[in-house]
Amino acid sequence: MAYQFKDREELQQFIGKEILTAAEALEYLGITRQALNSLIHRGKIKPIKDFKGTRLFLRTDLGERKIEAEGLKKKYRPYD
């Protein structure tokens, strides 16, 4: 997927809405840091940037994982 921006302001808006830090990703997915690290290690989620202990993620990637996790939860934990 290619992104094109008209100006710097549009780019900043995109980053503000669509790029999440690890802490924001934890909140968005409703998981622990250990679970996030496990997902990354198993290749279920891939950070777009990983540097000096800071990871950045695309909201669309996390959204896909969130939908997948909800489906798995319904399948394996129907009593919840």
Describe the structure.
The protein has helices at about 10-20, 20-30, 35-40, 60-75, and strands at about 20, 50, 55-60. With about 80 residues, it is an alpha+beta fold. The model has no long low-confidence stretch (mean pLDDT about 90). It has four helices and three strands, in the order H-E-H-H-E-E-H. It has a single domain (about 15-75), classed as Multidrug-efflux Transporter Regulator, Chain: A, Domain 2 (Orthogonal Bundle), CATH 1.10.1660.10. Strand 2 and strand 3 (about 55-60) form a beta hairpin. The termini are far apart.
What's the CATH topology label?
Multidrug-efflux Transporter Regulator, Chain: A, Domain 2
Largest sheet: 3 strands, antiparallel
Portion of residues in beta strands equals: 5-15%
Rg from alpha-carbon coordinates: 15 Å
User: H/E order of the elements?
Assistant: HEHHEEH
* Domains, number: 1
Structural class call reads: alpha+beta
The strand order across the widest sheet is 1-3-2
Keywords:
80 residues, alpha+beta, Multidrug-efflux Transporter Regulator, Chain: A, Domain 2, globular
SSE layout and pairing:
Elements: H1 8-18, E1 19-21, H2 22-29, H3 33-41, E2 49-51, E3 54-58, H4 59-76
Antiparallel strand pairs: 1-3, 2-3
